[in-house]
Amino acid sequence: MRHRWIFLVALLMEMPLFAQNDTIIRTYNDTTYRNVTDTVVSVTYIPDSVAKEREVVITADSTDRRGHYIQAHIGLGYGSLGYKLSGDDNRASGSFSALMQLQYAYYFHPNWGVGAGLWFTNYTSHASIGGSYEWKGQTDTDLETNYDHTARVNTWEERETIHNLGIPISVQFQMRKDAWKAGIFAAVGIAPSFSVSKRYKVQEGRLTHSGYYPKWDLTLTDMHEFGTKDYTDAPEAKGKMSVRPQVAFFADFGTLIPLNKQFDVLVGAYVNVSMNDANKSDKQDIGWRDENFDFMNEYKGAYATTLAGASHPWEVGVKVGLHWHYIKPEERHKEQYFEYFQRAETHTEYFTHVDTIIVARVDTPVHATEETVVPTQIRKVAQEVERFNKVYFAFDKYELTNKAKFYLNSIVAALNRVPEAQIMIDGHASAEGQDEYNDILSANRARTVANYLVSRGVDRSRIVTAGHGSRMPNEDMEREEMRRDRRVEIKVVYNDNVVLEQ
User: Fold this and answer.
1) In terms of domains, do 174 and 284 share one?
2) Please, where are the H alpha helices in 304-426?
3) In a designed cystine with 499, which of 54, 148, 169, 382 is the match (CB 3.0 to 4.6 A)?
4) Residue 418 vs residues 219, 340, 382, 414, 490: alpha-carbon distances, Å
5) Residue that finishes a domain, picked among 325, 340, 360
6) Cα–Cα dist 384/83, whole Å
7) Pick from 475, 335, 465: nearest CA to 408
């Protein structure tokens, strides 16, 4: 009797699920006999999976601001040839200026990039000349000698314009907190440039001549050789200026307004100024040199006179522009994945015995729990991860290739099905370079893989990363020199142990 109870208790402790049926068979002398039949139902859940294939579309991350840009700007402002005219009656002032700019930029960082292109701009100055000029001891047209000739500039307005073609080379900065919010843009650089057009034009020019004869103490005006002469339409009232190539410093600053994933509108301001003297003229004194005291024989504009100082063309204004960001088209790949499910197997066993003792007992059903299933699921995940557990990188790089992202997407699919599975990401580097640099490079590679998995939905608390530098060379049978050492290895761990040793 005692042995039967020991057997029954031991059996119940091992049984996941059971039911009991008690039936009264007969009664003798107030003694109750029971035929006790115990039915043990055992349910086993077996994890299983089936390999399938699906098409995966890999789209470029439009929030990544790195890459290639085409930028087109137009500007409007105020500019000048940047020189002064000496003398109280002389002055030079600026005028309207315009800018057209087209350039290519490459951003090697989400915020930093470099650019180069072409621009076309103009610098304009208005020169006003005044004052009197005297020649003593001259001979007039009647051969009367020893008189003093005076020429007075009453009105002299001249426009001088150069059009420059430049090659702006810049360092650029852009920043925005959200892909669909406005950001800031700034650029500084230099622009070697040369003038494709450089002309002056006297818009209004009149000279008043007079002659003073000392022996008679007489001043003559309004005669054949004395009087007012108009040079506005004279041939020498327009011509080309002599200008050397310039190197300009420039700066841009503005706001970027997003239109869509690829286009931004720039609204901002700009300034540029030549760092070298642009005036290449053989400067000459102002004066009227021929025998009739007409205009200077070789007048080439106020810019070419000794009245003009050093010239540093400059302009400042506002600009608008359009920035186009190249985004790779989507790629389609076939990938294998595992579809997980559980098969339930039920086993029923019957145990019958006859006893005269009525025993009250409480039966607690034992259900299958995750503790009995999870290790098997994790092993399945580890087996799938093992197929894609090595990601390779280019020399001295830690950016993910499309092939690497393709592998990592398969790992993400497996990890997201079993949240209890954790992973260890080990970064490695080849033997080129110094150990300290390789330690940093390998750690960056591990973090890049971790960041990508997190961006695809894997909880960061499930990930541990480490960088091993070049201390652990790749032991693959397919080793091809040192390029196979530039890798990241991914292992599934459970309770701080690697599930499958590679």
Assistant:
1) yes
2) 374-387, 402-417
3) 382
4) 112, 10, 11, 7, 16
5) 325
6) 75
7) 335
Three-state secondary structure of 441-493: HHHHHHHHHHHHHHHCCCCHHHEEEEECCCCCCCCCCCCCCCHHHCEEEEEEE
Q: How far apart are CA 264 and CA 262, in angstroms?
A: 7
Question: What are the backbone dihedrals phi and psi of residue 42, each rounded to the nearest 5 degrees, phi first?
Answer: -110, 120
Which pair of tokens denotes residue 374?
């999870």
* Residue 146, domain extent: 67-325
Total-model pTM: 0.54
Kindly state whether residues 168 and 285 are assigned to the same domain.
yes
The pair of structure tokens assigned to 69 is 């840009």
Residue 71's Cβ-side half-sphere holds a number of Cα atoms within 13 Å equal to: 32
The verdict on 237 and 156 lying in the same domain is yes
The CA dihedral of 428, 431, 434, 437, to the nearest 10 degrees, is -20
Same domain, 436 and 317: no
- Residue that is last in its domain, among 262, 296, 325: 325
Domain shared by 254 and 119, yes or no: yes
Whether 242 maps to a domain, the answer reads yes
Task: Tally the domains of the chain.
Answer: 2
Give the CATH number for residue 208.
2.40.160.20
Task: Give φ, ψ of 344 to 5 degrees.
Answer: -100, 125
Q: What is the C-alpha to C-alpha distance for residues 8 and 351, in angstroms, rounded to an integer?
A: 9
What residues contact 420, with CB distance under 8 A and at least 6 apart?
A: 370, 374, 377, 378, 494
109 with 186, same domain? Answer: yes
Per-residue pLDDT in tens (0 to 9) along the chain, 502 residues:
444 444 443 444 444 433 344 444 444 445 555 565 666 667 777 787 777 888 877 776 777 889 999 999 999 999 999 999 998 888 999 999 999 999 999 999 999 999 999 999 999 999 998 888 888 888 877 788 888 888 888 788 999 999 999 999 999 999 988 777 899 999 999 999 999 999 999 999 888 888 899 988 999 888 777 888 787 877 778 899 999 999 999 999 999 999 988 999 999 999 999 999 999 998 887 765 555 665 555 678 889 888 899 999 999 999 999 999 998 888 887 877 777 777 777 766 665 655 554 444 444 444 434 443 447 888 888 888 888 778 889 888 889 888 888 888 888 888 888 888 889 999 999 888 888 899 999 999 999 999 999 998 898 888 999 999 988 887 654 455 677 888 999 999 887 778 876 4
> Environment class of residue 142 by beta-carbon count within 10 Å: exposed (0-12), middle (13-18) or buried (19+)?
exposed
Measuring CA to CA, which residue among 263, 267, 333 is closest to residue 62? 263
